[in-house]
Amino acid sequence: MTRILISEVGPRDGLQSIDRVMPLAAKKAWIAAEAAAGVREIEVGSFVPPSLLPQMADTAELVAFARTIAGLNVVALVPNAKGAARAAEAGAHGISIPFSMSETHSIKNVRKDHRAMLAEIAAVAEIAQGAGMHFAVGMSTAFGCTMEGAVPEDRVVRLAEAAVAAGAAELSLSDTAGYADPAQVRRLVRGVRAAVGAERMTTLHLHNTRGLGLANVVAGLEEGITTFDASLGGLGGCPFAPGASGNLVTEDLVLMLNAMGLDTGVDLDKLLAVRAILAEALPGEPLYGFTPDAGPMLDYSERLHA
Amino acid sequence: MTRILISEVGPRDGLQSIDRVMPLAAKKAWIAAEAAAGVREIEVGSFVPPSLLPQMADTAELVAFARTIAGLNVVALVPNAKGAARAAEAGAHGISIPFSMSETHSIKNVRKDHRAMLAEIAAVAEIAQGAGMHFAVGMSTAFGCTMEGAVPEDRVVRLAEAAVAAGAAELSLSDTAGYADPAQVRRLVRGVRAAVGAERMTTLHLHNTRGLGLANVVAGLEEGITTFDASLGGLGGCPFAPGASGNLVTEDLVLMLNAMGLDTGVDLDKLLAVRAILAEALPGEPLYGFTPDAGPMLDYSERLHA
């Protein structure tokens, strides 16, 4: 039976996209409840300057808390070497740095061109190695960019090789703009894996901006992808607002994978119950997903892997 | 380049699911505009008694009208031989009859068990043959039933063989309850095709009740399916209401297939413009879809097949 890892990114990707700051206690309750539902990896926050993203100011405390949960892989996003040092100090199991395949997007977002980003990746890699942290590079805008439009696939492959040469232990392909289509997912996963080795490219970070999120997951599965990022309740992204992330909804992803007989280790009922924590801590914040309303199929339990 | 047929079922499946009756002129405008956008097959209505479904009372007039549109394949649903005779009289190119794989659902819906349905199929087949109409059997609840739960796959295969023996020229698998998952789609398509021949099983009718509609399309494509039913604006099905159809949204389906470089022949911009006809004729009726709000990707036109 194929084991699939659901990586919950809501506490980072979801919460950084909304203005309100979720109280630390609620974040802890969320992380604990989702781990108890069987989610084995959570991106708990981002080591960015609190002045830029006050929503992420308590990331070190969250790492420390999440580390106390047995069996949970605790990861954090870092924008640069300074963030990596903070993550190492906090004790994260793993870190990831976003590396935008669109140079326009990269310069606009973090004021670094590809050359400068590769230097930063090398610096982060050194810190990660010293601290024994797993280090992934998130190839953002890999499927296209709202500023540049199409991102040539050979450029993504070339930058994937460069990121690995700079010290990335792993790469993920990220559909920042919600542009990916299933045929493109298959081509690009195949291309990057051929260049850097399948064992270094096991993760997709997909959005649902145009409703193609789960369709792209199916394409990824066909190519052997085994880790999918998702956000509980699709938090932080209105799929209908241009430019919004429209994160893949964890609940729908788990329903689909579990119904397919794949082994996610996640209990859907327990996962659905975690939404109450979000609803209480962020009243009025829209939560997305089809499964929470429609419920699982009547024969859902018969579909689960033995 | 693979050619994919989008079969628009909104004028039948969409309109029969809502209480209001769309005026005949609006239906005609819808059908004409969607054909002008490149849709090559439309299910224009259902030959059920008008006393049961007044929304479908003008199906004969719609068939006659749609027949005047060059290149359009005009199909209608028929519940029985009486409906088939009316369809033949009206001049439909093709008809389909729903045949529920769940006997409970069949008895409850049309008061016929499987044996009685197969007799009806044989009677319809004779009328279709006499009139030169294409005849398809829609294997409804093929992926599970809200009453029976799981529908055994070997039962679907057996009933597919029986339907062909009774005279069906073609079969489609219909996810009436929104229960299908991508692994099941692949298994069931493969199983039915192996039993009755791939050329007789080219169509999927999928719902989006649990958000898996397009994911199931990808699974169908992998198995060689070349026709997909969909409803403009997902009309007639609230994906959040249990029991509602939650039809696949034509706009999102076209965006995905076109972006994948498949040849649907449908112009997305023109298709999106057709929504205005629905919005005007059915004010306040919810229309669904991600693409109408998010718009196509910036590099959409570069993805289209050459």
Rg of Cα set of chain A: 18 Å
Biggest sheet features of chain A: 8 strands, parallel, barrel
Strand content of chain A: 5-15%
| Pair of chains with the largest interface and how many residues each contributes | A-B, 49 and 49 residues
- Quaternary state of this entry equals homodimer
> What is the number of domains of chain A?
1
* Shape, principal axes of CA atoms of chain A: globular
N-to-C order of helices and strands of chain A? EHHEHEHEHHEHEHEHEHHHH
The CATH superfamily of chain A appears as Aldolase class I
Q: Which consecutive residue ranges of chain A, at least 5 long each, have pLDDT under 50?
A: none
Whole-number mean pLDDT of chain A: 95
Structural class of chain A: alpha/beta
Compose a concise summary of this entry.
2 copies of one chain form a homodimer. Chain A has 306 residues and is an alpha/beta fold.
Could you explain how this protein is built, in words?
2 copies of one chain form a homodimer. The first copy, chain A, has 306 residues and is of the alpha/beta class. Chain A has a single domain, classed as TIM Barrel, CATH 3.20.20. Chain A contains 13 helices and 8 strands. The first copy, chain A, has helices at residues 10-14, 24-36, 59-67, 81-90, 103-110, 114-131, 153-165, 182-196, 213-222, 250-259, 268-281, 291-294, 300-303, and strands at 5-8, 41-46, 73-77, 94-100, 134-140, 170-174, 201-205, 227-230. Chain A has an 8-stranded parallel barrel with strand order 1-2-3-4-5-6-7-8, surrounded by 7 helices. Chain A is globular, with a radius of gyration of 18 Å. The model of chain A has no long low-confidence stretch (mean pLDDT 95).
